[in-house]
């Protein structure tokens, strides 16, 4: 019998007292006995919030994903299939000429021109999420914003397909059409990316820890933070399943042409758009919150002007100014301060994204400088998502549960710093591979020279292309720790009304990384690129160490920050039922 049940029965069993003090003494004594009973027997009904002792002693577990979360994951899978399937071909499409002297190409802008344009595309794709976030949080909501930007994305894909047809290339529309296409596609993908990641986590409605009993009779604590971690692990797994489009599109490029590969991407994206539209009745949708972004910037200005993080609070305003003219409450400022903590954590990410961006640009060029043995140089990128698809189930089903059973915490800050360190190993390995290329004939330090040409086509130095594989594996492994944890941190530390905006701030760090990579473009030539890889390895390693030293104290505050909005989070309901209730 629970303490609540005993308290309900107590009045019936207890005698009536005329003396009020005696009555109070008896009631207090019964409550003390109940508290002692619960303390000794650790009794908490299933579904109730655990006590502090239960949180410490019981194993923490994650819940399964709702069907609506899986639907959002499918949408992201289709979008990433499209994004990677087409952008993975951009380096060859831009760098190589149409005459086939260096393999199939289109625009003939050489290495630096190709790296510059592909890096700009990455930069643009991670600036535009701010636009999508503002539209979602203030005007349309996440779901409607995703649908609108899907249409924009499809227009850009259509331009890319049409301008990559041989006839269009022959009439000089290739470069202009490509630039227009990447601008429109970048706007579309930005509007989707800032909203799809928080939308999938919105599908999970539990905000507080709860007691549950497993099929084996073990009492456990359902931990929402672990479920959010699982959601983003699965979400990231779907992203990388989608990116396996690079198993197909490079061969379509090699044996047919670029435009059929781009057309395949367009068709797959249409599938994802249909899923998001036809599955609308299943989604949990948060309505937009009006002027929430402008309120946040107003509050930040008050903080800066007064040099006090609490200055925007109405309570502070009343105490110091005698009146408050603000439209928010104290809790909103506490949420905003938590979001600022996340933004401070994100400040280190640009260096990581510089490293990550190498796998779709300079790594592709490096692969082309080796003996491919019939393997397209842009096919090697697939070892990044393949490694992620292999490692995520191992970590989620084996490593993480074992660590939790052994009470070994593996908090986001620790995971992120480890991701930086593993990324540095990828760059160091890439530098070693580049050295091996320069040490091999027939061209040595000048890959793809005339001495390597056979029937007019230049081939790489005598180093097998497969030797590049560990570099992609290291990049993939680092993503599981750095990128997945970043998505998780952006969602859990954002105020409920600013999920998309904080997610866009996280994505913006990728744009800063692309800007740094753009500045490094002049070093993307032989033999300087080997030293660029070495420098990035050192930078990523040092950032990982400094990051951990700077933010490790946040690991201890993780549960408190995650629980901040548990009591005040808005109720969630499927879109259709909310619409009916409003009607």
Automatic annotation (TrEMBL):
Keywords of this entry: Membrane, Transmembrane, Transmembrane helix, Transport
An example Gene Ontology molecular-function term: dipeptide transmembrane transporter activity
Region of interest (Disordered), ranges: 563-583
Protein name as it appears in the record: Major facilitator superfamily (MFS) profile domain-containing protein
Membrane topology, as annotated: Multi-pass membrane protein
Transmembrane segments: 146-169, 175-201, 231-252, 258-279, 339-356, 386-403, 415-438, 471-492, 504-525, 531-551
InterPro entries, per the entry: MFS_trans_sf, POT_fam
Record-stated family: Belongs to the major facilitator superfamily. Proton-dependent oligopeptide transporter (POT/PTR) (TC 2.A.17) family.
UniProt GO cellular component terms: plasma membrane
Subcellular location: Membrane
Classification via Pfam families: PTR2 (PF00854)
